[in-house]
């Protein structure tokens, strides 16, 4: 069988590339995963601690809200401590943008039309240029400008795109082009249609997200449908999964979306069955335990966990490590797709963790010898 699989190809939309600190966004750069802290930014220690957890989960970029002067005062310490570039979230007060740019922000999330006069926009642009900051324009269906709501009657794709173009023009009028744009909505259909319209209109990188998506399960599903639909169509250069959950969970879900589409590889990709009466061991609890215990693995590799020998051998042959359930508490272990040895139920969990850790170390050594860069490197050293 040919290894060429055209039905898997995703042709990414062509766009220009910008830099957010050390991280390239757009062009042929990997699609980045970002999240946002939810601690009071004025509490630098708590914010840094949360950033550490997000970095460990693999975040490439992290957004930090700067609603007041105390927040931008703490931002300098936070930016010095962070290992990935930080985006300062600014809404209405242009001085917060000036302070954040001076304090080490790699990007300003700001809508130029919301901060007042052209002179104020010019000041923000000057500060961004002086400090090497990018700008992210963030249009949201929940906060569309009054004149657009009056024109269109309700939030709609054309209204979101027009809002984005208006904000873009304000930056272009001041000869600023290091920007990316989002047109988010909590309605999946609205968001997808708006992004599709914007993608055909501009040449800048696009930041994807389904805003106010919901809790961990519901928000993951909505985000996977919306973000996944756009990525599959080749649209999108950086993503944030907006969940009512801890920010590191947003990062993990973001990577799962990218991994599911073959757009990035990071950590263990688990193939597991939903379990049934044929299972030779408790698949559900085993997979849950493995996902928890293998979070520290950043090296890309695959693991199959199948409860019986119906589909198990076929799936195991396609993964780096596999286990299929057998009778009498004795299960077959596959290494690189080949049957290798048996393991008893009592030892299986610890045994699989050990095998994965050993395989990860082996892959890392091979990549180091070859001089390759992998997703196992620090989050801003993108593959």
Automatic annotation (TrEMBL):
Entry coiled-coil feature ranges: none
What top-tier enzyme class does this entry carry? oxidoreductase
Question: Might you give the EC number(s) for this enzyme?
Answer: 1.17.7.3
According to its UniProt entry, the protein's GO biological process terms are: isopentenyl diphosphate biosynthetic process, methylerythritol 4-phosphate pathway; terpenoid biosynthetic process
Q: Which domain of life is it from?
A: Bacteria
Q: Where is the IspG TIM-barrel domain?
A: 16-254
Q: Which UniProt keywords apply?
A: 4Fe-4S, Iron, Iron-sulfur, Isoprene biosynthesis, Metal-binding, Oxidoreductase
Detail which positions bind [4Fe-4S] cluster. 273, 276, 308, 315
Which cofactor(s) are needed, names only? [4Fe-4S] cluster
Q: Looking at the keywords, is Oxidoreductase present?
A: yes
Q: Which reaction does it catalyse?
A: (2E)-4-hydroxy-3-methylbut-2-enyl diphosphate + oxidized [flavodoxin] + H2O + 2 H(+) = 2-C-methyl-D-erythritol 2,4-cyclic diphosphate + reduced [flavodoxin]
- Which InterPro entries does UniProt cross-reference here? Dihydropteroate_synth-like_sf, IspG_bac, IspG_bac-typ, IspG_C, IspG_TIM, NO2/SO3_Rdtase_4Fe4S_sf
Tell me the route in metabolism or biology where this protein functions: Isoprenoid biosynthesis; isopentenyl diphosphate biosynthesis via DXP pathway; isopentenyl diphosphate from 1-deoxy-D-xylulose 5-phosphate: step 5/6
The protein's GO terms of the molecular function aspect are:
4 iron, 4 sulfur cluster binding; 4-hydroxy-3-methylbut-2-en-1-yl diphosphate synthase activity (ferredoxin); 4-hydroxy-3-methylbut-2-enyl-diphosphate synthase activity (flavodoxin); iron ion binding
What the record notes about the co-factor is: Binds 1 [4Fe-4S] cluster.
Where's the IspG C-terminal domain?
270-357
State what this protein does.
Converts 2C-methyl-D-erythritol 2,4-cyclodiphosphate (ME-2,4cPP) into 1-hydroxy-2-methyl-2-(E)-butenyl 4-diphosphate.
Q: Describe the family membership recorded for this protein in Swiss-Prot or TrEMBL.
A: Belongs to the IspG family.
For this protein, the record's PANTHER family field holds:
4-HYDROXY-3-METHYLBUT-2-EN-1-YL DIPHOSPHATE SYNTHASE (PTHR30454), 4-HYDROXY-3-METHYLBUT-2-EN-1-YL DIPHOSPHATE SYNTHASE (FERREDOXIN), CHLOROPLASTIC (PTHR30454:SF0)
Q: What is this protein called?
A: 4-hydroxy-3-methylbut-2-en-1-yl diphosphate synthase (flavodoxin)
> Which species is listed as the source?
Caenibius tardaugens NBRC 16725
What gene is this protein translated from? ispG
């Amino acid at each position: 069988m040919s290894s060429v699989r055209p039905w898997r190809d995703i042709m990414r939309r062509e766009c220009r590339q910008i830099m957010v600190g050390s991280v390239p966004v757009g062009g042929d750069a990997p699609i980045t995963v970002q999240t946002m802290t939810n601690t009071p930014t004025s509490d630098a220690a708590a914010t840094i601690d949360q950033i550490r957890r997000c970095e460990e989960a693999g975040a490439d970029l992290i957004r930090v809200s700067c609603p007041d002067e105390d927040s931008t005062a703490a931002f300098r310490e936070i930016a010095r401590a962070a290992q990935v570039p930080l985006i300062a979230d600014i809404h209405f007060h242009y001085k917060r943008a000036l302070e954040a740019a001076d304090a080490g922000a790699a990007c300003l999330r700001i809508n130029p039309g919301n901060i007042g006069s052209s002179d104020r926009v010019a000041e923000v642009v000057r500060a961004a240029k002086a400090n090497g900051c990018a700008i992210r324009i963030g249009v949201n269906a929940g906060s569309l400008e009054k004149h657009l709501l009056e024109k269109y009657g309700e939030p709609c794709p054309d209204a979101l795109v027009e809002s984005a173009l208006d904000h873009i023009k304000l930056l272009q009028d001041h000869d600023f082009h290091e920007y990316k744009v989002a047109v988010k909505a909590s309605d999946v259909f609205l968001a997808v249609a708006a992004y599709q319209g914007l993608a055909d209109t501009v040449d800048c990188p696009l930041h994807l997200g389904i805003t106010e998506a919901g809790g961990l399960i519901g928000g993951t599903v909505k985000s996977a449908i919306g973000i996944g639909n756009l990525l599959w169509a080749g649209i999108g250069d950086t993503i944030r999964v907006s969940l009512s959950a801890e920010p590191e969970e947003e990062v993990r879900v973001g990577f799962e979306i990218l991994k599911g589409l073959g757009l990035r590889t990071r950590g263990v990709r688990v193939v597991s069955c939903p379990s049934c009466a044929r299972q030779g061991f408790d698949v559900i609890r085993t997979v849950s335990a493995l996902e928890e215990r293998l979070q520290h693995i950043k090296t890309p590799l695959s693991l199959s966990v199948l409860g019986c020998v119906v589909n198990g051998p076929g799936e195991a042959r396609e993964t780096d490590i596999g286990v299929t359930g057998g009778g009498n508490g004795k299960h077959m272990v596959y290494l690189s797709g080949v049957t290798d040895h048996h393991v008893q139920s009592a030892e299986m969990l610890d045994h699989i963790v050990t095998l994965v850790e050993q395989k990860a170390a082996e892959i890392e050594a091979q990549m180091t010898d070859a001089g390759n860069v992998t997703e196992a490197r620090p989050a801003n050293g993108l593959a």
